[in-house]
């Protein structure tokens, strides 16, 4: 039994919901985005554009809701504990992750044999999750530069002019999409390669026994086999 | 009263000489009002202003105009003057005193150059520029009218000619995308160093090459500039005495601040997802949307669908050609001329120029995406080989950094084993083992039972 126990305190219900909304919206945005870029089958342009803008608003509103909730809802700072802290703290540097960037990189490159101790999010993961909201806001901004309703106004028109025209804005928007696609590839891969327990917890709150981590001691202190194994 | 009658008559005579009926003339005025975004109620006022101004010719009050032609194909002049088929638009030529134009002036040579010099000296003229300025080879990529003497060597550079003509102008009108930002002559791989009037003058001024104030600049994009636009701007500037409201690229806002796509007659097909994928196809015959064959209408700001071309006869997309975005200008960035931004014309994206290598952005994206997937798959095999796919590798008992810095360690392995929770957990496990009854859902983590 190598991994930490998976308790639902790590991902409280509100975040399960926002995560689902993110997943569905992102997939729809990517699909409709590819379609708008080039309508590979005839017949859906009006729908694709409508859906693209609908999910753009959904994902942006969801982002704002998620950020507000981060300051209200409490969640566990680590796997293997039911202790909770205000959620936003888990996206910022924490004691438990101190000096661990190198260790994580080495672990993923097979240069370190044992799994780094640490909080719910490892260091590279934390950096990535911290960057995603900014990327999404940037994506939204660039998207609004392409939306005829907003493109002629203030900062959107200024940005388009700055980068040299709508063609360049389109290419930026397209490449940013690929940043999200690559993020999703890596995100799905890393969260599932060591077993599907983390994914089950994230999508359905299904708990799973394992090692117990004490955030106050900052280390693994034992094992919990009470939670159903499967 | 008597004079008015004579004047009207002379105006009518002028129209007649040009083969233009009064009806055509009123249509022109209506077109000007529409292009400028003025109410149709302004039409009589425009007609009156034009008549009055043309009559002004007799009293010698016409605005002098210098029409410079630099690196250009003369397309702007051609489409404006349509010399072999004069029509109402050329009436505008009567509004001005065209003191210098390489194509339209009757005179030539020294006498014409002299007329230009005198006009510049007198000031208050309108400077029309057609074609790009060429900075290449120290400005020698384009030289005009050098008399062969060393003293005038510098002045014969196209760039210097514009600089000199700008020095005393009341306003500068750049006709066409070339004069606005270098246009297609600035496109790769032309080494001539094409640049637009605005960028050139601002740069030269910043370099201290002159110190006069740069006159207001109005850019009229498109390749060539649409005569309807030129006429409307000239009427605006000359007669209504206003500079039209300009957008962020110094082009008249009313003409160049709406998407072609938003006024396109094929737009219904776009929304239905009915596209021409191949020329010569059934879809093309049906007049479907040209998006899939590279139409740049969704990203090009111009009123082409409303003003149309060839005196309102037709325009690109309606005639069956995807818009190639010739109305796109970036006056301060000649590298971002419309050709560089929109070629290849039949493709949805422009190509990226990576060190002279032209590649489609989508190829780069799929290439990088493919590499990433391959890397992840390889990594996955590594994880499998190292036995990490069932819960990951075993945890370190102490952070690596902590083992090297014991004095600053967060928690040593020993501390973890002997802490209160660890003890509590151990006891619980023992108790469980003793009663050998499987506990109900009970967590033993520090938060207590639940
Ligand atoms: C977050 C807010 C977003 C907004 C406001 C937005 C808006 C837009 C708009 C207005 C267009 C142009 C549609 C058209 O020309 O009809 C567009 C195109 C596109 N969008 Fe988004 N979008 C957003 C997010 C995303 C995301 C998250 C993705 C994918 C990860 C994405 C992928 C694309 C792609 C690939 C295109 C086609 C670009 C082209 O080739 O022209 N968008 N988006
Ligand atoms: S033909 Fe071009 S401008 Fe017209 S609807 Fe299609 S994409 Fe838009
Ligand atoms: S429709 Fe497009 S290509 Fe045709 S003149 Fe207008 S901007 Fe240029």
Explain how this protein is built:
The complex is a heterodimer of chains A (230) and B (450). The model of chain A has no long low-confidence stretch (mean pLDDT 93). With 230 residues, chain A is mainly alpha-helical. The radius of gyration of chain A is 20 Å and the shape is elongated. Chain A has one domain (8-224): Transmembrane di-heme cytochromes, Chain C (Fumarate Reductase Cytochrome B subunit), CATH 1.20.950.20. Chain A has helices at residues 13-37, 45-70, 101-108, 123-146, 154-163, 166-192, 197-204; strands at residues 74-75, 85-86, 210-214, 219-224. Chain A is built from seven helices and four strands; from the N terminus they run ααββαααααββ. Chain A has a two-stranded antiparallel ribbon. Chain A has a two-stranded antiparallel ribbon with strand order 3-4. Chain B is an alpha/beta fold. Among the domains of chain B are: 7-255, 3-Layer(aba) Sandwich (Rossmann fold); 361-391. Chain B is built from 19 helices and nine strands. Chain B has helices at residues 2-17, 22-36, 43-59, 75-81, 109-122, 158-166, 176-181, 197-206, 227-238, 253-256, 267-272, 282-285, 304-307, 316-319, 338-342, 361-385, 400-404, 413-418, 420-435, and strands spanning 63-69, 96-101, 126-130, 133-134, 171-175, 194-195, 217-220, 352-354, 357-359. In chain B, the strands form three sheets. Chain B has a five-stranded parallel sheet with strand order 2-1-3-5-7, sandwiched between helices. In chain B, strands 4-6 form a two-stranded antiparallel ribbon. A two-stranded antiparallel ribbon of chain B has the order 8-9. In chain B, a hairpin with a 2-residue loop joins strand 8 and strand 9. In chain B, helix 2 (22-36) packs across helix 3 and helix 2 (22-36) packs across helix 9 (227-238). Mean pLDDT of chain B is 86; it is low at 1-7 and 438-450. At the A-B interface, helix 2, helix 3, helix 5, helix 6 and strand 3 of A face helix 11, helix 16, helix 18 and helix 19 of B. Bound molecules: protoporphyrin IX containing FE and iron/sulfur cluster (2 copies). One iron/sulfur cluster (SF4) is lined by residues 260-261, 264, 266-267, 270, 289-291, 295, 297-298, 317, 323 of chain B.
């Amino acid at each position: 039994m190598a991994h930490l126990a998976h308790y639902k305190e790590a991902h409280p219900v509100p975040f399960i919901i926002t995560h689902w909304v993110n997943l569905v919206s992102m997939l729809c945005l990517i699909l409709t985005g590819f379609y708008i870029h080039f309508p590979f089958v005839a017949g859906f342009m009006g729908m694709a554009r409508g859906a693209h803008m609908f999910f753009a608003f959904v994902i942006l509103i969801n982002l704002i809701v998620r950020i507000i909730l981060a300051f209200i809802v409490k969640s566990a700072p680590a796997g293997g504990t039911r202790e909770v802290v205000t959620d936003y703290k888990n996206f910022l540097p924490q004691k438990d992750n101190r000096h661990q960037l190198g260790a994580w990189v080495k672990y993923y490159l097979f240069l370190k044999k044992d799994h780094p101790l640490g909080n719910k999010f490892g260091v590279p993961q934390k950096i990535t999750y911290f960057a995603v909201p900014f990327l999404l806001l940037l994506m939204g901004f660039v998207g609004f530069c392409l939306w005829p309703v907003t493109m002629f106004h203030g900062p959107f028109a200024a940005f388009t002019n700055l980068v040299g025209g709508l063609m360049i804005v389109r290419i930026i928007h397209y490449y940013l999409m690929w940043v999200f696609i690559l993020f999703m590839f890596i995100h799905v891969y890393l969260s599932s390669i060591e077993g599907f327990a983390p994914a089950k917890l994230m999508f359905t709150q299904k708990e799973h026994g394992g090692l117990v981590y004490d955030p106050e001691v900052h280390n693994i202190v034992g094992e919990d086999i009470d939670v159903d194994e499967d | 009263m008597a004079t008015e009658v004579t004047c009207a008559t002379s105006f009518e005579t002028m129209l007649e000489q040009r083969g233009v009926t009064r009806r055509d003339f009123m249509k022109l005025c209506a077109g000007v009002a529409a292009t400028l975004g003025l109410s149709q109620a302004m039409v009589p006022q425009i007609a009156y202003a034009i008549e009055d101004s043309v009559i002004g010719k007799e009293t010698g009050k016409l605005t002098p105009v210098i029409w410079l032609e630099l690196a250009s194909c003369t397309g702007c002049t051609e489409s404006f003057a349509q010399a072999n088929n004069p029509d109402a638009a050329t009436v505008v030529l009567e509004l001005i005193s065209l003191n210098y134009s390489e194509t339209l002036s009757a005179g030539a040579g020294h006498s014409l150059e002299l007329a230009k010099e005198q006009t510049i000296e007198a000031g208050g003229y309108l400077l029309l520029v057609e074609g790009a300025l060429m900075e290449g080879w120290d400005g020698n990529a384009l030289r005009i009218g050098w008399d062969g003497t060393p003293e005038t060597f510098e002045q014969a550079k196209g760039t210097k000619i514009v600089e000199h003509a700008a020095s005393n102008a009341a306003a500068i009108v750049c006709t066409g995308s070339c004069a606005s930002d270098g246009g297609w002559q600035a496109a790769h791989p032309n080494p001539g160093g094409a640049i637009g009037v605005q960028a050139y003058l601002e740069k030269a001024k910043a370099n201290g090459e002159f110190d006069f104030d740069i006159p207001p600049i109005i850019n009229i994009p498109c390749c060539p500039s649409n005569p309807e636009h030129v006429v409307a701007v000239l009427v605006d500037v000359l007669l209504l005495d206003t500079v039209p409201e300009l957008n962020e690229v110094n082009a008249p806002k009313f003409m160049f601040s709406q998407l072609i796509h938003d006024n396109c007659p094929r737009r219904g097909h776009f929304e239905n997802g009915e596209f021409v994928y191949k020329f010569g196809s059934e879809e093309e015959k049906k007049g479907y949307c040209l998006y899939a064959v590279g139409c740049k209408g969704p990203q090009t700001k111009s009123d082409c669908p409303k003003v149309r071309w060839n005196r309102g006869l037709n325009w690109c997309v309606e005639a069956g050609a995807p818009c190639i975005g010739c109305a796109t200008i970036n006056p301060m960035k000649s590298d971002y001329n419309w050709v560089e931004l929109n070629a290849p014309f039949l493709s949805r994206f422009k190509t990226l120029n990576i060190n002279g290598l032209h590649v489609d952005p989508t190829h780069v994206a799929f290439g990088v995406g493919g590499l990433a997937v391959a890397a992840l798959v390889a990594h996955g095999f590594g994880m499998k080989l190292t036995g990490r796919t069932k819960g990951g590798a075993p945890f370190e008992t102490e952070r690596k950094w902590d083992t090297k810095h014991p004095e600053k360690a967060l928690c040593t392995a020993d501390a973890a084993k002997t802490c209160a929770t660890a003890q509590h957990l151990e006891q619980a496990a023992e108790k469980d083992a003793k009663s050998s009854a499987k506990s109900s859902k009970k967590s033993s983590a520090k938060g207590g039972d639940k």
